[in-house]
Structures are given as C-alpha cells and as structure tokens.
UniProtKB/TrEMBL annotation, chain A:
The gene is Psma8-L. Its main location: cytoplasm. InterPro entries: Proteasome_alpha, Proteasome_alpha-type, Proteasome_asu_N, Proteasome_sua/b. It holds the Pfam family Proteasome_A_N. This is Proteasome subunit alpha type.
UniProtKB/TrEMBL annotation, chain B:
InterPro entries: Proteasome_assmbl_chp_1 (IPR016565). GO terms for biological process: proteasome core complex assembly. The lineage of its organism: Eukaryota, Metazoa, Ecdysozoa, Arthropoda, Crustacea. PANTHER family: PROTEASOME ASSEMBLY CHAPERONE 1. The gene is psmg1-L. Transmembrane segments: none annotated. This is Proteasome assembly chaperone 1. The keyword Chaperone applies. Belongs to the PSMG1 family. GO terms for molecular function: proteasome binding. Keywords: Chaperone, Proteasome. GO terms for cellular component: endoplasmic reticulum; proteasome complex. It holds the Pfam family PAC1.
Length: 250, 268
C-alpha cells in the first residue's frame, strides 16, 4: 500500500500528512467484530456481535462489553489485549477521581482520559498506537445520557448512535436511515433499533448478539436470551413484511 | 586477527561481499503448468466467458457468490519454482509449495479462475499466457481485482450507498460499455490483472477489468464489495452468468466455512 519508509515509525509523518501506524491501527479495529451503541431518551444500549466460543474455552473470559464504573459502560472493537489495558487504566482513573473529588467521573471526562492515553501512544517513540476503538456510554450525575466513540488516533466524539469494528460503515448507514428521537424514546425502541442495526451485518439469531442496557441510577443489565429471542423474532417478522410489501409494489 | 605465530591475518568482514567470495548466482525460475482433468480438457476449449479473480475480496466474492454447488472443478494452474533452495534464499523458515490456482466451470460455460496469492508479479505474464492459451480468441474475459484504496493514489470517494470504489479498464475488442468509470491516473494496475489485460490487448480479445478499492484489508469484509461487484453482472454480456437473485445466507455460510479468516480472540 504505502511501500515507503513512512510507515515504520509512529513519530514520522508522510509527505501527504499521514501517520501510517495510526491508520494501520484503525485497520486492526476493523478486524474486530461489530459493536453498536444507541443513546435513547433515558437509556443507553450497547450491542455487540458475540463470537462463538471454542468448546473448551471458558466463556467468561470472552467479554466485549465492560463496566468502567457503576454508571459507565464500554464496548470495544480491535485488539483484545490493548482493550484490556485501556479498561484497567480507565477503571483505576474512575476510582481515583471518585476518591479525589468525591464525585463519579462524567462520561466526557473518562472518554477524554482514554482518548488522551491513546493519543500519547501516537506520539511516543518505541511505542505503537492502541489497536482499539471504544464505544463509551452511560449517564452523568445529572441523569443525562451520553455515548462517545474513541479511535486509535486519540480522537473522541459524541454520538446519538454509532458503530465500530467490522462492517461499521454498513451499520452506521442503517442507523442514519432509521434513527429518530421517537424511535429511541422508549427502552424497547432503543433496544430494537440497536439489535436490528447489528443484525444487518451479523447472522440472524439471538445467540450471535449480546445486549447491555443502562438506565440512570440503575446498574447495568444484560438482556437475557429469552427476551433477545423475542426481539429477534419480531425483527425478522418485520423484515419479511417489508420484503413482501416491496414485492407487491413491483 | 593474530595467529599463534604472531602474523596478522586479514579477516573478511560480513559487512560487505567480496567478489571472489560470491556464491554462484542462484537463478530462480518459474514455470506455470496447467493440470486439467477430463472435464477440463473437454469443456474449456468451448468456454464462452472467463472470470479471473485476483486479490482477497475479489476471490472471496467469486467463491461465495459466482460459484455454486453446480460448478465443477476442472483443473488447476500451478507455479513451479526452480532454483530456490532454502530459507537463506527465501527468508522463509517454512518454505512451502505455492498453492495452485483453481479452475471452475459453471453449467453456463463460464470458467472461473481464482488466482492464488502465490502468483506473484514476476510470473504474472506467463500465467496470463498459459490461461488465455487454453481459451478461444472470442472468449470474453473479465478480471476482478481487489485493492486497498491507497493504490488509487488519488481521491477515494465512495458514491451513494457503496462502501468501495470500482474502476474499469478494457481492451479495444470489448465492445460493451463498462459499468464503472475508467481507472483515473495516476493509479495503475500490476501483476496478474495487468498481464491479462495486456495479453488481451495484444491478442485482440474482448476483456474488461474491474478493480475494487476498499478502506480495509480485513477479511470478512466481503459485504463491502458485494453490492458493487454484483452490478457488473446485472448488465452486459456477463448478465446471463449470474444467479438471478443474490442469496444473503451465502455470505454467512461462507464466513462460517472459513474460520481461518478469523483470528481467534486476538481481535474482538
């Protein structure tokens, strides 16, 4: 691709302004399975593609959604080991902040912390960027929901809905078409939107997705398999009805 | 270095090669060999069209969507490497035999050649000559190749709902209009796609090349290129070779059957 000497060192710009190591780190993010996040009126939902676990592997070690604090959720895509380091550092920072200022972190603060850490690794010699992109969701003390996305370059942005990982572009386009404030004004609507978005790029089935839900002043909960199956069945039925309508129009 | 008797003997440094210490030049040569089975020998000369896929996503597209259960394997095109002996020559601690390129035939007399990743630029011309030598001169040729968007060397702007950019080149003998716009300068093509197109221009064969550019090298991103590549089969001379409807579950089946594309747990 580049075939030049500008892609070997993190601290070297190419003549056209690229930091190739950062771009390669973004490629690593695209190797990870898809994660989708949606911010509703009083709910935040993260949904991830669940990889099949080998028969002899302990399922609990394979987790794409993590709790950074009681009110902060994170889903990531990319290198698992890099994500583990970020999660550990973020958790320590959350507790340190609470001890120091006696208030829990805001979503913006912890996102900025993670993004700053990532940026530092794009400007240091002998290091490489984190090959992970993070969706950080939760509620501030005032009850306002937030959803942020960070990438290996250290950029962070706030979103109403977004996706990262493999096929994120397809999912993002789906969200752009179907997201509306009415659609996510209820918990059920937000969950349905996020599951439907992920099922655009993942094989249909409740066993292929994992959904985490957070509401203000409530602990995170994972959607149980029974409820997930109901939602997936509803979504498939709606898709069939839409396909039928399209056929009749033709 | 001083010897036992005190004389100083010059020791040659490994930092440079002295002419008289050069080994005999190792000449590496390549030979492309076709191995056709009985069906291949009977059917290939009558083939009406051939699709040649080069690059991971293009090959994945052909394997997942162009080929069906009714297609038969009619042979292979292999590359024999002569003169390459050990890891000092190759830098490869596990030297391996190059994987042959598979040839498939569909019921509609479409030959599909999935070019192996071991077919490098140095052997591309020979490969193209051998492959096209099997076919009659009126046979329509389509080359599908996939690249990273860095190879475009220009602006990369996916249009509409596409998640990739597709450009085309064609030989003068190709009378139809390509579905996608011409490859703009300064982008170039190389290796097998270039060799095939060159052979077709020289041999006055109808040939169209579609090169698709995506933002990612990642495997498993076949859905980035599916919609764009299907369009090349919806019009023109290749329309009759494509299944009438795209079956989405073929994509899922393909991923399930190719777990080696997924790196267990290193990426989540």
């Amino acid at each position: 691709m580049s075939g030049t000497s500008y892609d070997r060192a993190i601290t070297v710009f190419s003549p056209d302004g690229h930091l190739f190591q950062v771009e390669y780190a973004q490629e690593a993010v695209k190797k990870g399975s898809t994660a989708v996040g949606v911010k509703g009126k009083d709910v935040v939902v993260l949904c991830v593609e669940k990889k099949s676990v080998p028969k002899l592997q302990e399922e609990r070690t394979v987790r794409k959604i993590c709790l950074l604090d009681d009110h902060v959720l994170m889903a990531f895509a990319g290198l698992t080991a890099d994500a583990r380091i970020l999660v550990n550092r973020a958790r320590v920072e959350c507790q340190s902040h609470k001890l120091t200022v006696e208030d829990p972190v805001t979503l913006e603060y912890i996102t900025r912390f993670i993004a700053t850490l990532k940026q530092r690794y794009t400007q240091s010699n002998g290091r490489r960027p984190f090959g992970t992109s993070c969706l950080i969701a939760g509620f501030d003390m005032d009850g306002s929901p937030h959803l942020y996305l960070t990438d290996p370059s250290g950029t962070y942005t706030e979103w109403m809905a977004n996706a990262t990982g493999r096929s994120a572009k397809t999912v993002r386009e789906f969200l752009e078409k179907h997201y509306s404030e009415e659609a996510v004004s209820t918990e059920e609507g937000a969950i349905k939107l996020v599951v439907r978005a992920l099922l655009e790029v993942v094989q249909s089935g409740a066993k292929n997705v994992e959904v985490a839900i957070m509401k203000p002043n409530e602990p995170m909960r994972m959607l149980d398999i029974g409820s997930l199956e109901k939602i997936v069945t509803e979504i498939e039925k709606e898709k069939e009805e839409e396909a039928e309508k399209k056929k009749q129009k033709k | 270095m001083a010897t036992f008797f005190g004389e100083v003997r010059e020791v040659s440094s490994r930092a440079y090669d002295e002419d008289e210490e050069d080994d005999d030049n190792v000449v590496v040569s390549y030979k492309v060999k076709e191995e056709l089975n009985k069906e291949g020998l009977e059917k290939i000369p009558n083939v009406k069209a051939v699709i040649i896929s080069h690059g991971k996503l293009a090959t994945d597209f052909c394997e997942a969507l162009v080929l069906s259960e009714k297609c038969i394997n009619v042979g292979t095109l292999g590359v024999e490497v002569q003169g390459q002996t050990d890891c000092e020559d190759t830098g490869d601690f596990h030297p391996r035999h190059p994987t042959p390129s598979q040839l498939f035939m569909s019921p509609q007399s479409l030959l599909v050649c999935c070019v192996s990743k071991d077919v490098k630029a140095v052997v591309a011309s020979q490969f193209a000559q051998v492959l096209l030598g099997l076919l009659k001169s009126s046979c329509m040729v389509m080359v599908l190749s996939s690249h990273h968007y860095g190879a475009l060397k220009g602006s990369y702007e996916p249009q509409g709902e596409d998640n990739c950019v597709v450009h085309s080149l064609h030989s003068p003998a190709f009378s139809d209009s390509p579905v996608y716009p011409r490859l703009p300068q300064p982008a170039t093509i190389d290796s097998v796609p270039a060799a095939v197109l060159t052979e077709c221009v020289v041999g006055s064969r109808p040939c169209v090349l579609y090169s698709v550019y995506t933002e990612t090298y990642s495997t498993g991103d076949l859905d980035l290129v599916v919609d764009a590549l299907i369009k090349v089969f919806q019009t023109g001379p290749f329309k009759k070779f494509m299944p009438a409807s795209l079956k989405q579950n073929k994509l899922h089946q393909y991923r399930a059957k190719n777990p080696q594309n997924e790196t267990l747990d290193r990426y989540m």
